[in-house]
Each structure stands twice: as C-alpha cells, then as structure tokens.
Amino acid sequence: MAKNSFLGGVVKFTVAAAAVSGICYLFRDDLKSSKTYQKYDVDEKISKAKTVVKDKTATIKDKAATLKEKAPWANKASNDDVDEAVDEVVRDYVEIDTDDAVEEAADKVEEAAEEVADKAEDIISAVTD
pLDDT for 18-77, tens place per residue? Predict the structure, then answer.
C-alpha cells in the first residue's frame, strides 16, 4: 500500500510540475517583462548556475577518471606482471600415447569382466548347491 501512495504522490507531483511549466511557457514573455524578473536579474542567475553546473560536471568527470586509473583492477601493469609470472612457471607435461592408453583400458575392462563372471559363477554354484 505504501508503494501505491508513493507512486500516486510522484504522479501528482509530476502532473503539477508539468502544469506549472506549461503555464510558465505560455506566459514566458509576460514573465520576462515583469518587474520582479527584472529586479532579481533572473537571466544572469540562470546563466551563472549553468556555468557552475558545467564546471562541477567537468571536475567530477576528471575525478572519476583519476579514480578509474587508480583502481587496482584497472591497472594493466599488474595484470601484465601476473601474466608474465604465469608464463615463467615451468610446467612438466607428460605426453599420453592414446593407443597405449586405449589398450590398457581395454585390458582392465577385460580383467574386470572376467572377475565379475567368476564371481557370478561362484554365486550361481553356491545358490544351486
């Protein structure tokens, strides 16, 4: 229920803001020529705010770029060092002759089959006796 009231509040606020901005757009010439608009020099304050936002955005982007460079996972040099260390490790590989391996496996299977057959015969003879 809280989500629905929150969503309803957001929708009401959005509709109200759109209505106010629509009215301001319709009467923009009248608003710009008003004494209050002239007195507070709104155009100059808006341009100052825009320049401040642009400057802050640029500094934030620069800070983000420096943080990315300083991040340990973004450092290519450390990754290269790890790769070089892995390459330096000497590994002894044993080549396996597949024909011999297949023959050995076949021999083991035959031996296991013979053992199972012998045990089966022993069990059958024990049961029949």
Answer: 999 999 889 888 888 888 888 888 889 888 999 999 999 989 988 888 888 877 666 555
Residue with tokens 């301001």: 24
Residue holding tokens 């990754």? 79
Half-sphere exposure (Cβ direction) of 63: Cα atoms closer than 13 Å: 6
pLDDT of residue 13: 92
CA distances from 102 to 97, 109, 125 (A): 9, 10, 34
Distance (Å) of CA 27 to CA 22, 32, 40, 46: 9, 9, 18, 18
pLDDT for 124 beyond 80: yes
CA distance 123 to 129: 10
The answer to whether residues 57 and 63 touch, using CB atoms and an 8 Å cutoff, is: no
- Residue whose entry in the numeric block shows the structure tokens 């229920």: 1
Residues in the chain: 129
- Picking from 42, 26, 23, the residue whose alpha carbon sits closest to that of residue 34 is 42
